[in-house]
Amino acid sequence: MKEHPIFRTAWWGTNVLLAAAVISLIFAAGWEYSVRRYLKGFSDAIVPEAAAPEQKVEAILEWMRHGPSRNSSAHSGELAARDPQNTLNYRELLEVCGTATNAFLNLGKSGGLQVRRLLLLGPNRATKHVVAEVLIGDRWVVVDPMFRTMLRDPQGQLLTRQQLRAPGVLEQATRDIPDYSSEYDYNNVAHIRLARIPLMGLGLRRVLDRMYSGWDEAFDWSLILERESFAMLFASFLATVFLLIGRLGLAWYADRRLHIPRLRLRTQILRARAALFSSPELK
Questions:
Q1: Distance CA 43, CA 58 (A)
Q2: CA–CA separation, 52 vs 275, rounded Å?
Q3: d(CA 102, CA 88)
Q4: Top-level class of domain 51-226
Q5: Any residues with CB less than 8 A from the CB of 140 and at least 6 apart, and which?
Q6: Residue 155 φ then ψ, to 5°
Q7: pTM score, two decimals?
Q8: pLDDT above 70 (res 279)
Q9: Which of 29, 17, 8, 9 is nearest to 241 (CA)?
């Protein structure tokens, strides 16, 4: 291998990165498990298990309206906004649309609801407001966690984002909600805002829209975007798979093209097992 310094660098670099990715994956799995246990206990105390989806939504919103006293922080901007243990427990975070939706999403998913976030965008694709959509029956209806409400028409029918685009429907649904801004319209929405990616965000969305027009709804992005532990688990898993494939490719190249003798992982494992578990030889 000394005769191939570039390959040697790539080989050892890939192995080091793979080891780091595996460690990260194990840590993230433990973190995500603890978060899920925490959320399960939290939702069990709030959301009736046998209730219908609409009743579960109302139970979460009622807890958000009149729950127990919450912690207060003079430096709420320093709190991790994608950590449900923060968004569920700090009063300041439950009063902001993004973090209130984060709390609702995490409780809803833990309580058995199919729920996803929805971004209301301006003409420049900047986010104006964040709400949630909940699957009730066969319809994705809109819930606004910041205002603790499910949007309905005058007959009490729950509304979808498509219905809220119709002239006058949104105004009727929100006229009794104090301080509801008229800027929060549903003409331009997204589940994931790629414009946050510097330089390439808008171009990437156009490419994806051409390749598959429904890509942002074909996959539920909510947990990746709204829970730090799950995002780390997902990224660590992808990195582990990518690096493992890269390592296998380098091993194939070493065996078939460079003909470099190497100590195979299987051989190393067998030697380690023999060293750890075989009886010592006594002279």
A1: 13
A2: 58
A3: 9
A4: alpha beta
A5: 116, 133, 134, 160, 161
A6: -85, 0
A7: 0.81
A8: no
A9: 17
